[in-house]
Write a structure and sequence with these properties.
single chain; flat; alpha+beta; 3 domains; about 35% helix
C-alpha cells in the first residue's frame, strides 16, 4: 500500500507564499487560454536595449543592473615567490607544472571553484599546502576586482521577447501565443512600500496579424476576472515608451473592493523595434506585475512585508503565547534529577530565614550511583539565607516580562505592590520561579560534573540582571517581538546564596 508523504511525516500541509501561489494560478489561467509557456533568458545584452528603445535607451539603462566578472590576473612566478613556495613545500619540484596550471586558469580553462582541488591533484600537494600557496604566495587573488561587461539583468520581460519571437519565426512557427513568467531586476533608488529591486513579471505576447487590440482587451479581462477584478477601464497613455507603437500603450484599471486600481499594461510593439529583429508581424504584449496584483489581492499595504515577511513582518503574540515559550535554559536529563529538584527546593525554603553566614546540608544520599552531599549556604553576616527575590515568579503582561514575588509575600506592600498592581491583576503568571529555575540548572551541572568524573561543584547566585543568570530561556522571535514593540524585560533581583556539592 502506498503511503503519502503527509502520512509519513505526520505534518500538516505547509503554508504557501502569496506571490508564488498567484504565479501558479496565473500560469494555469494562461495555459487554459491556449498560451504556450516559454522560459526567457535573464541576461540581456546592452545592444538589445538600444535596438528596442532607440534614443530612450540610456534612460532605461540607468535602471538596470550591469553584470561584472572578476578579471583573472596574469600570475607569474618570481624568485621571491619560488622561495616562499619552498618554505611551504620544502621538496617542491613542479614549478613548470605550476606555471602551466596558472596559465590555464588565466585562460579560463579552470573554474575558480575547482582551483584548489586541481592544485592538490595535479601538483601532488595537500589541501592545507594548496590553501597556504593562495594565502601567502599569490596575493593577486586578494586583489581581484570586478570588471563590468555589456551584459545586464533583465529589467522587463519585453527585453527578451524580441529575440525569442525572432528565433521562433525563423523556425517558421506562426502564429504565436506565448507567455513567460520570472524575475526582473530594477536598480531602484531604494526599496520601500511599493518598490523592490526584484519582482515577478507575468508577460504575454501574441504574434498574429488577425489579433486586434480589442481581442487583447478581451483576453486581459478574462485573466483579471479569474483573479477577482471587475469593471475594467482602459486608458491610453499620452507619453509612451519607444518600444510601443503610438496610441497602443494602454494602462488597465479595475475595481477591487471599493477601489479603482491600475492592474496591468498592454500594447503593440513598435514597427521600428520589430524591424530591428527582422520581425514583420504585429506583436501584442500584456504585462502583469505579480507582486503588485498580490498586494491588492492580499489587501496588504507594504510590498516588502508581503514579499519578505521574514525581514519586516512583526508577529503578534498574546501573553499566553509568550508564556508558553518560556522554559529553563538547562534542566536535568534524568528522572532522578527532576525528583531531586523538587526535594531541594522544599529544603531551601524551609531554611530561608536562617541568618548567615551559614551552611546547611540539604541532601545526602545516592544520585546516579554516586554518594553525594549538597549544601545551601550564605556568606553575608546578619542576612537571611536567601534574599527576597528567591520566590520571584515570571509574569507576562501586555507583551512585557516581569519577575515578581507572590503579592502576599512583599513586606514593602504599598510601594512595590502598587507599582505592579496591574501586572498582578491582569497579567499571566507562569509556573516558573527563580528557585525552580536555579535548582534545575544546579542539578544539570551535577549530572554534567558526574559525567566528567569530577568530584565537586560550587555555584553562587548574586544580583540577577540577565535572564541567563537565572536559567530562563527566551526564544529569538519572542525576544525580537518584545524589543521591536518597545516592551520590557524586567527580570532580576537579589539572591546572594550559593549551592555546592561533593560527589564521591
Amino acid at each position: 500500500m502506498e503511503v503519502s508523504l503527509k502520512e509519513e511525516t505526520k505534518r500538516e500541509r505547509g503554508k504557501e507564499h502569496p506571490v508564488s501561489a498567484l504565479s501558479v494560478k496565473l500560469r494555469e489561467i494562461f495555459l487554459e487560454l491556449g498560451l504556450d509557456e516559454i522560459i526567457n533568458p535573464m541576461v540581456v545584452e546592452e545592444r538589445d536595449i538600444y535596438l528596442q528603445y532607440g534614443s530612450e535607451a540610456p534612460l532605461i539603462l540607468d535602471r538596470v543592473y550591469y553584470l561584472a566578472g572578476v578579471d583573472r590576473a596574469d600570475i607569474g612566478l618570481s624568485n621571491h615567490k619560488v622561495e616562499k613556495i619552498k618554505e611551504i613545500i620544502p621538496n617542491f619540484n613542479k614549478l613548470e607544472e605550476l606555471k602551466g596550471y596558472l596559465r590555464r586558469f588565466k585562460e579560463g580553462r579552470i573554474e575558480g571553484d575547482d582551483f584548489v582541488e586541481g592544485l592538490v591533484n595535479e601538483l601532488a600537494v595537500s589541501e592545507e599546502q594548496a590553501l597556504s600557496l593562495i594565502e601567502k604566495v599569490f596575493p593577486e587573488f586578494k586583489e581581484l576586482r570586478p570588471v563590468p561587461s555589456k551584459k545586464t539583468l533583465r529589467s522587463h520581460m519585453t527585453a527578451l521577447w524580441y529575440s525569442t519571437i525572432a528565433a521562433l519565426l525563423s523556425q517558421k512557427k506562426y502564429p504565436l501565443s506565448l507567455f513567460s513568467m520570472g524575475p526582473r531586476f530594477r536598480r531602484e533608488q531604494r526599496q520601500d512600500s511599493s518598490h523592490l529591486y526584484e519582482s515577478t513579471s507575468a508577460s504575454i505576447v501574441i504574434v498574429d496579424e488577425n489579433f486586434t487590440l480589442e481581442d487583447g482587451k478581451k483576453i486581459t479581462q478574462k485573466i483579471l476576472t479569474c483573479l477577482g477584478f471587475s469593471n475594467f477601464e482602459f486608458k491610453i497613455k499620452g507619453v509612451t515608451s519607444n518600444y510601443y507603437a503610438p496610441g497602443t500603450d494602454t494602462e488597465i484599471y479595475a475595481e477591487f473592493g471599493s477601489q479603482k486600481v491600475e492592474v496591468a499594461n498592454l500594447g503593440y510593439y513598435s514597427k521600428e523595434s520589430l524591424t530591428n529583429y527582422g520581425i514583420k508581424y504585429p506583436v501584442f504584449n500584456l504585462g502583469l506585475g505579480v507582486e503588485r496584483l498580490s498586494l491588492l489581492l492580499e489587501k496588504a499595504k507594504d510590498i516588502r512585508e508581503l514579499v519578505y515577511p521574514q525581514y519586516l513582518h512583526i508577529i503578534e503574540l498574546t501573553d499566553e503565547e509568550i508564556i508558553s515559550t518560556l522554559k529553563p535554559c538547562q534542566e536535568p536529563a534524568t528522572p532522578g534529577g527532576e525528583k531531586l529538584v523538587k526535594e531541594l527546593v522544599e529544603k531551601c525554603l524551609a531554611h530561608k530565614e536562617t541568618i548567615g553566614p551559614v551552611e546547611i546540608l540539604i541532601y545526602e544520599g545516592d544520585f546516579l550511583g554516586k554518594e553525594i552531599k549538597i549544601w545551601v549556604y550564605n556568606w553575608d553576616m546578619g542576612k537571611s539565607l536567601m534574599s527576597y527575590a528567591y520566590l520571584n515568579k515570571i509574569f507576562v503582561y501586555e507583551g512585557s516580562l516581569y519577575s515578581l514575588p507572590p503579592r502576599d509575600y512583599l513586606k514593602k506592600t504599598t510601594e512595590v505592590k502598587n507599582k505592579f498592581l496591574e501586572v498582578y491583576d491582569k497579567g499571566r503568571e507562569s509556573n516558573l520561579s527563580f528557585m525552580d529555575l536555579i535548582m534545575k540548572k544546579f542539578i544539570f551541572e551535577i549530572e554534567k560534573t558526574l559525567a566528567k568524573g569530577e568530584v565537586s561543584l560550587d555555584i553562587k547566585f548574586k544580583m540577577i540582571k540577565r535572564l541567563g543568570e537565572v536559567n530562563l530561556y527566551i526564544s529569538d522571535y519572542v525576544n525580537n517581538y518584545i524589543t521591536s514593540n518597545n516592551k520590557k524585560i524586567l527580570v532580576g533581583g537579589p539572591l546572594f546564596f550559593g549551592l555546592k556539592a561533593l560527589l564521591s
